[in-house]
Write a structure and sequence with these properties.
By secondary structure, the chain is mainly β. The chain contains two helices and 32 strands. The chain folds into four domains: about 100 residues, Immunoglobulin-like (Sandwich), CATH 2.60.40.10; about 130 residues, Sandwich (Immunoglobulin-like), CATH 2.60.40; about 55 residues; about 120 residues, Immunoglobulin-like (Sandwich), CATH 2.60.40. Keywords: Membrane, Signal, Transmembrane, Transmembrane helix.
Length: about 500
């Protein structure tokens, strides 16, 4: 049993077992392994470096990443615990992840990690990969477009308190140079397009590749206005739009042609308003001489718009231009008839002469003797001609007395003791003048209007003026009573005057 052959076989078997044990123990150390490789490229569309990392596993069991470190940024899809697939079909397992590095500050990208296998818990040493950045990574700029090839879109609106607009460069467009755009408002003579127009307010902005949208805002006048949104800057603003002068034309945004058609949106212009920018006023004043003073004024919102007034009355016509804050007076001759005053954006004003309340009235003097009755009518200066209708008995006579003139009317003396005088065109009561008493049996004597009971002959030619005649008679009566009282006192008392 313990033959030399048996002992030799035993030693050989032990040696074989020892060698086999060594092989099993050492073979995993040479087979469990992971690798890492990185490749960088430049994305010229964004100016960003894209680093692609490939992690490999040469063992037929999944490996788990641990102790991960990356520079200069994190790696998308790679963190502690990430699995590197097992080797399969004779091909190493692979995990592909990417890292983005923006700018040229970083000179390399690195990734380091350990791997641990799921089947036996084996963990290898730290693996590290790095990629050097030697060339710059620059974004490719899109070719710029000239102003005539750029495209935009806009908004535009007008309210009572102002106008606003927003103009935006379309996406994907790169401008070779900035594009100015302006919003401007005007005074206008009418709510429809008309001239002349005068600038009221403006706002200008410039669209660039960095500032791709601008907001504009202007005030509008509280009267007729025009508002325009156009491609152009402050130097392109038209301060005064006149007949035959410059226009914005198809530079206005939203136009069907020209540079304004480059922007899509509503029409970039407005005409409107609820009232004129000038305010005409008319004040007619009747004068005592029959003329009418027509006072004309202009109280507009702008001094740019004068007002043309037209004054008509019968064959009389006069046109007057009145600027803001000024006034003009047109005198319509007496007897011209109904007056019409007209002006743009104003309802016609109609007026007829009416007697002013403070005009001086004609005066009347009545004289008589045994044969005639004479009525003298005197018309003051500065008044219109007065027509007097004088009645004595059954006889009626009319006379027209010019201003500052005197006219006399005579009648044959009859039995009537008074004469009446009317002024049909004046707002006064008729005058009833009593004839003075005359002793025709003793040769007669002149008598004055008014009469009385005194034994003395009447004083000739006392004037009687309109409705004031009654007041004169009342005062005379009072004086007569006062004289009687003093006469009675004198009869009862002796009065001595001392020099």
């Amino acid at each position: 049993m313990n033959s030399p052959l048996r002992r030799a076989a035993t030693v050989l078997a032990g040696a074989l077992l020892g060698l086999t044990g060594i092989t099993v123990a050492t073979s995993p150390a040479s087979a469990h392994d992971t690798g890492i490789n990185g490749v960088a490229r430049c994305d010229t569309a964004t100016g960003t470096r894209i680093v692609t990392w490939t992690l490999t596993n040469d063992w037929p069991a999944n490996a788990t990443v641990g102790e991960l470190a990356t520079t200069p940024t994190a790696v998308e899809g790679l963190q502690n615990g990430t699995v590197i697939p097992a080797k399969s079909g004779g091909k190493d397992g692979e995990l592909v992840v990417t890292q983005q590095v923006t700018g040229d500050a970083a000179k390399e990208a690195t990734v380091s990690f350990k791997s641990r296998w799921s089947d036996d818990g084996y963990e290898n040493e730290v693996k590290k990969g790095s990629v050097k950045f030697t060339d710059p990574c620059v974004k490719d700029e899109a070719p710029c477009v000239t102003a005539d090839k750029a495209s935009f879109h806009h908004t535009f609106g007008v309210k009572e308190d102002g106008s606003t607009a927003t103009v935006t460069l379309d996406d994907g467009i790169t401008l070779c140079e900035g594009e100015p755009v302006t919003l401007v408002s005007y005074f206008a003579p009418k709510p429809q397009f008309s001239v002349p127009q005068y600038k009221f307010d403006s706002d200008t902005g410039t669209i660039t590749n960095e500032k791709r949208s601008v907001d504009l805002s202007v005030d509008v006048p509280k009267c007729n206005t025009q508002v325009d949104l156009f491609f152009g800057g402050e130097d392109d603003i038209i301060g005064e739009i006149t007949e035959g002068g410059k226009r914005y034309g198809d530079t206005k945004l939203g136009s069907g042609n020209g540079s304004g058609s480059r922007s899509k949106g509503p029409q970039g212009w407005f005409n409107g308003g609820s009232k004129g920018c000038q305010t005409p006023a008319v004040e007619p004043l009747s004068q005592c001489d029959g003329t009418v003073a027509i006072n004309l004024s202009n109280d507009g919102l702008t001094d740019k718009y004068p007002i043309e007034f037209t004054v008509k009355a019968g064959e009389f016509t006069k046109m007057v231009t009145v600027t803001k804050g000024k006034g003009e007076t047109v005198v319509v001759p007496a007897g011209s008839g109904s007056i019409t005053v007209s002006a743009p954006d104003m309802k016609d004003v109609f007026y007829n002469w009416t007697p002013p309340a403070d005009c001086e009235l004609p005066s009347v003097v009545v004289e008589n003797d045994c044969k005639t009755v004479t009525v003298t009518v005197q018309n003051p200066e500065g008044v219109q001609p007065a027509t007097a209708r004088v009645t004595y008995g059954d006889t009626v006579k009319d006379v027209t007395v010019a201003a500052g003139k005197t006219e006399k009317i005579t009648f044959k003396r009859g039995m009537e003791t008074y004469a009446s005088i009317e002024f049909p065109d004046l707002d006064v009561e008729p005058i009833k003048a009593t004839l003075g008493e005359v002793d025709c049996d003793n040769g007669g004597g002149a008598g004055g209007g008014g009469g009385g009971d005194s034994d003395e002959p009447d004083e000739p030619g006392l004037p009687v003026t309109g409705p004031v005649a009654g007041s004169i008679a009342g005062v005379a009566a009072l004086l007569l009573i006062a004289g009687g009282v003093f006469f009675f006192i004198a009869r009862r008392r002796k009065v001595t005057f001392t020099a």
